[in-house]
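Researcher: Sequence recovery benchmark, item below. Answer with residues only.
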């Protein structure tokens, strides 16, 4: 997929802002609608960035349980952020920084720190104007130098938590020229029992917006199907927008189709006209079609990959699902993910593990599920099943090898067993005195040196790679000698840190201490994931099935 074009930012024009709010209920796909709008503007030649606002008090997503908010996405600067940022990076093909995720916690923390430093010179510090000013400042800074900045306000209009942000948005709207600001409101259009599209929830949520001084410019209706013309007219009439500012966003099989669907609806053209961008846009004929070609290509078959984790929730492993999809796009196959519960590996789950063409063990924290992950590693190692271990999945491969091949009985990661006789994985030396759980990990992009003539050098096609990290534990240097001369080779290192492992006598057994999934993009799939699928497709039986 194309990355954003070189910025041709025009200082005369300034930055254009598209704010996106959501009504009726959460989980509507507001982020995907926003990211799709961004993708289309990027296709038309604009440099697009995004800001995600999360109205929770956590300073960042690092300490949040994946069951509640899905995976913690890691940025190159080490920012631990909401998974929506991952969608923006993948849809826009850009790398963002922590400044692009504004939380209530971040805004308040900064204001309170300034207050303690005496910066407010004796004034009473208040939500309006101090917090709202801080929010506006952060948004403007993140947008600086880009043609368009999409600002997604998390939560639903009417939530108490969102109030300071919506007030900041209201002020923002009055401070901007009309041509530089647009408010898109995404709502739900449900069906009644007799199959009629209902607009009342949309009307109510727009009323709610209006009561706080905000009038949407564009309305996007999330619905099972396309909105009927009569539905659009009714929404337009009751919500005071032109009919051609009401768009459908029907359910589609895959989120990557959403840009195509909203393009067909004309959302991008409307937005560009409204923001005065139409004249600067690349002509229809010359627009970048790579996204469309990529996501609509015919695939040659399907492969099954087992994902052995502990959260039975797709969002908890979103970037891995996406990275597998990207590798599938590159290799022209559909990837079917088989969920295997590492914590309760009953017969059904074991069966699924054995059915799979390849196995992925993802990252994770704590001891729950580690035994199941070790069993999955063993199965992959002993049966020549292509294996990819990510972070904890890398560590589990080290533990499994230490136990079952090197004979280090009871070997473990100190995270799962503090009293293990062989802590082959142990806490990072510089982390011995952890007091705070927030921000104590090795985070973000770090370079790894790759040993030439190894599987790793083949996979990456290079002698170094820079990938994102999020871990506290790593291979214990005291055990390096035990692995020396064995079949398990550490083929990627960063100084004294082991970053990549592979097994010499296995078709594809690859582990990374880092998380390559965070840099995977449609059209720029992550090498270890592509390697996994290549190994799966090299299996002769499958090759026939898949016709590669
Ligand atoms: N819990 C392990 C560590 O802290 C692995 C982390 C992960 O998988 N992201 O090192």
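Model:
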């Amino acid at each position: 997929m194309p990355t954003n074009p070189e910025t041709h930012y025009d200082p005369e024009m300034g930055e254009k802002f598209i704010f996106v709010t959501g009504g009726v209920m959460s989980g509507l796909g507001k982020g995907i609608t926003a990211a799709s709008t961004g993708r289309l503007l990027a296709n038309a030649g604009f440099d697009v960035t995004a800001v995600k606002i999360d109205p929770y008090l956590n300073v960042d997503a690092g300490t949040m349980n994946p069951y509640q908010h899905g995976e913690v996405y890691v940025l190159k600067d080490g920012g631990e952020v909401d998974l929506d940022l991952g969608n923006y990076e993948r849809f826009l093909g850009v790398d963002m920084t922590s400044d692009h995720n504004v939380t209530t916690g971040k805004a308040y923390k900064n204001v309170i720190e300034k207050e303690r430093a005496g910066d407010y010179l004796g004034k009473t510090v208040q939500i309006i104007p101090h917090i709202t000013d801080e929010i506006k400042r952060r948004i403007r800074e993140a947008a600086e130098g880009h043609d368009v900045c999409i600002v997604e306000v998390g939560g639903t209009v009417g939530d108490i938590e969102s109030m300071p942000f919506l007030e900041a948005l209201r002020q923002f709207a009055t401070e901007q020229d009309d041509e530089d600001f647009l408010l898109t409101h995404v709502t739900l259009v449900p069906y009644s029992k007799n199959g009629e599209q209902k607009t009342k929830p949309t009307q109510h949520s727009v009323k709610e917006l209006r009561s706080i001084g905000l009038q949407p410019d564009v309305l996007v209706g999330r619905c099972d199907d396309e909105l009927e013309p009569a539905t659009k007219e009714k929404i337009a009439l009751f919500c005071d927008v032109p009919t051609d500012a009401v768009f459908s966003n029907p359910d589609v099989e895959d989120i990557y189709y959403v840009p195509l669907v909203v393009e067909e609806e004309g959302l991008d053209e409307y937005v560009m006209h409204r923001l005065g961008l139409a004249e600067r846009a690349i002509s229809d004929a010359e627009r970048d079609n790579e996204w469309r070609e990529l996501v609509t290509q015919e695939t040659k078959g399907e492969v099954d990959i087992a994902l052995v984790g502990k959260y039975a929730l797709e969002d908890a492993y979103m970037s891995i699902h996406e990275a597998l999809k990207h590798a599938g796009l590159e290799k022209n196959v559909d990837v079917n993910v088989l969920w295997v519960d590492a914590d309760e590996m009953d017969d059904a789950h074991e069966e699924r593990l054995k059915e799979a063409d390849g196995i992925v063990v993802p990252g994770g924290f704590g001891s729950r599920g580690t035994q199941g992950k070790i069993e999955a590693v063993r199965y992959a190692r002993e049966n020549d099943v292509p294996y990819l271990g990510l972070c904890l999945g890398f560590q589990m491969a080290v533990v499994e090898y230490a136990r079952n091949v090197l004979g280090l009985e009871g070997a473990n990661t100190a995270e799962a067993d503090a009293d293990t006789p062989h802590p082959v994985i142990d806490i990072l030396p510089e982390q011995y005195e952890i007091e705070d759980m927030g921000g104590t990990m090795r985070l973000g992009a770090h370079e790894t040196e790759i040993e030439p003539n190894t599987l790793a050098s083949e996979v990456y096609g290079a002698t170094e790679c820079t990938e994102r990290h999020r871990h506290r534990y790593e291979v214990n240097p005291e055990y390096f000698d035990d692995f020396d001369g064995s079949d398990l080779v550490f083929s990627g290192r960063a100084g004294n840190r082991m970053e990549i492992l592979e097994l010499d006598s296995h078709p594809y057994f690859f582990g990374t201490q880092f998380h390559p999934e965070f840099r995977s993009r449609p059209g720029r799939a992550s090498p270890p994931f592509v390697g996994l699928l290549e190994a799966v497709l090299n299996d002769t039986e499958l090759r026939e099935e898949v016709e590669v």
